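Troubleshooting entry. Yesterday's outputs looked truncated, so today I'm pasting the complete records for two proteins to confirm everything comes through intact. If either block looks cut off, that's the bug. Protein one:
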Amino acid sequence: MRILIVEDDTDLNEIIVKKLNAEGYAADSCSNGREALDYLESVAYDVAVMDIMMPEMDGLEAVKKLRDRGNMTPVIFLTARDAVSDKVKGLDSGANDYLIKPFSFDELTARIRAAVRVSSGNPSNVYSLADLSLDTATHVVKRADKEISLTAREYALLEYLLRNKNKILSRQKIEDNVWNYDYEGGTNVVDVYITYLRKKIDEGHDVKLIHTVRGFGYCMKDEEKE
């Protein structure tokens, strides 16, 4: 899941990004609304977590401009403004949710999951395909009722594939969603991690769920239903 953190408090910005990356999210960050618009126009983020009171362009103006441009990326305001009138103004500007500082990191991630459930049309935290399931709240992955241990990056890749099951995804699109701007790996990173996942998800099962689409990328689907 690719997330943009927009916060002008450098320390808080770094803390949120580090915690999200540790949880398996791909998090980028910037410090004002003007930069946020540039980021959100260049990458398809799943969620943006944005402060309101920022230099150059505040969060309210940034979200209004974002919506005017037809960009419907879910936005969660994370702000110290706690008056009801501020919440109303924030939500009316086009934001999807509003969280008050100080906040619980667990609540923030829960609200991120809720925003993605709405945008993806999935009614719960569990994504499934055939006998494979992934719970975004607990990070528990099972196939045929057997729990599978994944690294944070393997988990992020599997989550993205499952959220887009039956869709053909290019290597570039996968990399853009699962890895952030700070990544300095090799050019075949997607292929390498797909190999890791196949060993853990498909090896030993008659029905394979991760498929290569030659010349394009990958698709996660139940081949028995073809």
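Protein two, checking that the full record survives here as well:
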Amino acid sequence: MTWLAFVLILLSAMLHAAWNLIAKKNTMTVPFYTILCIMGALVWLHVQFWTPVAVWSLPLKFWLMIAGTITFDVLYCFSLVLIYRKMEMATAYPMMRSLPILLTVLTTAVFGLGSAIGWVRGIGFMVVFAGALLMPLRNFSQMKLSTYLNWKMFYVLLAACGTTGYTVFDSQGVKIIRSLYSDVSAVTVSLTYYSTRALLLSTTLCICCCFMAEARKVFRDYWEKRNFYPVLAACCSSSTYILVLIAMNYVTNVSYVQVCRQFGLPLGMLAGILILKEKSAVIKWVGVSLILVGFAISFLG
């Protein structure tokens, strides 16, 4: 993993925490996420007109990757809505970001995607995961299995599966374009992929919302109240994932991307505490410390 990839993912983590804060503060809904995706698609639509990549002539394998990423992103969207209705950001955000570490490592290992991560970095990944497991707790007495085996955590697991799925499919989609257009810059490839992905994802979510009476009502409320928070969140969201897609060109295994994105966990917790006035606890700070230590091991190992 290069320093460029590290810096890109670090900036991405900050923006990711920002849009999740906006979503939590303004009630996360499917229409909110849909508007977020639509705005991202519109902002980067121009890429379709100047990219040297013949997008609509790409092979079937590429479109299967796109179909996979859209499926898992929709799963992530619906899970996120349930989570932010029932859980605090300081509790939910760390779990949603940490579980994909192990899930991505497992997926890449089972399907042979990318190079092996090595045992030292593997230890770092586990330390990050252990820290994340502590962050949803209020005290050390809650460190028991029953704390994690409930419906709220099931929704978190679904969101984590969604994140893992779309990350893996996206990394493969970007690789397909890179293999066919090796002379095109990594930035152009990433922008092309994101623009195509955003167009199809926003279309899929719009179709879903058409069949949901509650979603149609929320859309009207956003318009009547001139609520521009989804637009602000869209700027952060689209920027954060473009940075991730660019970083994917500079790593040998997408698991590195997942673990480095965990830098957003302390930021998400601090945002929840300072802005949303959520409660802090010693155990949460222990969790943050473990995440930072594990992050250092993963990057320097």
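Both blocks look complete. Sanity check on protein two: The longest helix spans residues 151-180.
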